Amino acid sequence: MSKELITLTHISKSFDGQLILDDLNLVIHENEFVTLLGPSGCGKTTTLRIIGGFETPDQGQVIFDGKDITALAPNKRQLNTVFQKYALFTHMDIADNIAFGLRIKNKSDQYIRDKIAYALKLVNLEGYEHRMPDSLSGGQQQRIAIARAIVNEPKVLLLDEPLGALDLKLRQDMQYELIRLKKELGITFIYVTHDQEEALTMSDHIVVMNQGYIQQEGTPEDIYNEPENAFVADFIGDSNIITATMVRDELVRILGVEFPCVDKGFGEEKPVDVVIRPEDVELVPRGEGCIPGEVTHIIFKGVHYEMEVQAGGFEWLVHSTKESPVGSQIDIRVDPFNIQVMNKPASEDEQAIGVEE
Amino acid sequence: MNSKRHPVEKIYMAIIFLFMYAPIVTLIVLSFNGSKSRAKWGGFTMEWYANLIHDSEVLNAMANTLIIALIATIVSTLIGTAASVALTGMKRRTRSLVIGVTNIPMINADIVTGISLMLLFKVLHFETGFLTVLIAHITFDIPYVMLSVLPRMKTISPSVYEAALDLGAEPFFAFRKTILPDLTPAIISGALMAFTMSIDDFIITYFTKGSGFDTLSTKIYSEVKRGIRPEIYALSAIIFIVVLILLLTSDRIKAKAGKSVRRERSVQREKIRRIGVIALASGASIAIILMALAFGGVFSKNSTQVFVYNAGEYIDPEVIEMFTEETGIEVVYDEFESNEIMYAKVAADGSAYDVLCPSDYMIAKLIDNDMLMKLDPAKIPNALQYIGKQYYESATSFDPGNEYAVPYCWGTVGILYNKTMVDGPVDSWDILWDPKYQGEILMQDSIRDAFMVALARRGYSINSVDPEEIRQATDDLIAQAPLVQAYVVDQVRDKMIGDEAALGVIYSGEAIYTRRENENLEYVIPKEGSNVWIDGWVISRDARNVDNALAWIDFLCRPDIALMNFEYITYSTPNVAAQEMIEDEDIRNSNVAFPDEETLSRCDTYVSLGEDGDRLYNEAWKKVKSAD
Question: How far is B174 from chain A (nearest CA, A)?
Answer without folding.
Answer: 10
